[in-house]
Amino acid sequence: MSESSKSPASKKPPQGRSRYISIDGRALGRLSAAGLQWLQTNQQIINSLNVFPVPDGDTGTNMALTMQSACNEIESSADRSIGAIAHAIAYGALMGARGNSGVILSQLWRGFSLVLDKKDRMDAALLTKAFVEAKEAAYRGVVRPVEGTILTVSAEIAKAAQLALDDGVNSTLEILERVVLAADEAVQRTPDLLPVLKEAGVVDAGGIGLYFMLEGMLRSVTGQPLDEPTLSEQPLRAFKSVIDAIEPGQDWEVVIDFRPEKQLDVPKFYGHLEEMGTSIQVGEGDGLYRLHIHVADKSEYEPIEYAKSLGTVTNISIENLMVQMADQQARDNVQNIKLTPVDPGETAVVTVVPGMGIARIFSSLGAAGMVEGGQTMNPSLQDILESIDRLPTDKIAILPNNKNILLAANQAAKLSVKSIVVVPSVSIPQGVSAMIAHRADGNFENSVEAMTKALDDVVSAEITIATRSVKIDGVDVREGQVIGLLEGKLVVSGDELVDVLFEILDLCSANETELITLYYGEDLSAFQANQIADSVRKQWPDQEVELVEGGQPYYQLILSVE
Predict the structure, then answer these.
(1) pLDDT digit string, tens, across residues 125-168
(2) pTM (global) more than 0.90
(3) How far apart are CA 136 and CA 436, in angstroms?
(4) What does DSSP assign to residue 341?
């Protein structure tokens, strides 16, 4: 980590350390809010730590949303009991858990709260015991624990707390100081434990997210700011506009790539930008900066001129926010999809969908419930539970259609009083294949078994744009290139989408199959998609080629071969 993000544990804390010999529930609530704020401040840094250079990093977002749900649960509580507050935090984290990282974070809080049950205050010994049980709960919640992840960091945290207690530390503040240092060191070691991290040149995103949460707690106690991101760590990335939160009077989204002539004075730079607009995001990589800002009408060229005054502008994008919002609302309102009615006793399917086109496909195949989500927008456990609860039957299969939603789906299945089975689909093509095998009026166990077997009937691949330069699994990738992933593994890169598509289809032995299906995303027009499909038909004349509007973000194409 950069010096600006190093643990503040070595800095002199405020006077009155005796205040922290033990703490009550209100103090834990304040610490949790600080952890959330620091997570949010560094959210994009965490998101950028994808192993693969794909534009869908969401670990920071998932952990921040999980903690936001946890903090919302205690927002109006007047309880001073640390047991009651910890229980509420754990419940809120569980209900709001998003993605694998969010689910694991919720399990950490669950273990933490179990130790504090019915306790009024927490001292150093109880805090240490809570960290140990948090680690145990997190490991229990994962079927096949992998070292070099957030789990490893939780284990090192528990070990550090126990060593501090054994050394005679009797203050919760001093335990927290030791824990933050241990988390920092554990994060830096994650690439040594997980080779794919070392190959990609990143640390584990979930692990650093846990570190930031704990560091935020410590920063709040030591009086350090929680709203100044560690900018130097944030690599250049493509910013996806959050258009459901447009500020009044902000009409344009402006994105500028530029190379400054000299080192930026970051506080001064941000100060000028804040005078121009809002929703400011800045990324940096290899001397190139990307600026994102929302500005008022007739002011859209002001940040461009400012960037020019600092150096050489290499790329500019200006989009009307209101048009973006209208387009997205029309495109993404999954709630308007007509779902298949089911009767009590029938088998229903709840499926996760990332776009309107894909939602229509699952609707046509008989889905009774849908949860909007996918890459960068993992649904919460509560979202899944609500979709389950709305159905009149107690026999339900869940199709996550994404590996990062599996844990949340499994937790929902455990919490529901209904008979829930998760069919472990990790891609849209797998989900479609499972839906084709589904029989609503058949035996529940037989239907689930047929759906699960159908997952192996299809080969799935995705095509997107690389967000950074890297070499993984022998594939050299330059930022901005087209890349292809086959069954979740990076296998090819190139400068042209069609070339990458052809290489993937060759790897799939497409000439030996019957059907090639292309689901085109929101970044391709129907005209472009049809041109691509025609080129595939020409190259593989003996195969049936089906083109479907998927509407998914980030991935220009999702494809299946069967």
Answers:
(1) 999 999 999 999 999 888 788 899 999 999 999 999 999 999 99
(2) no
(3) 40
(4) P
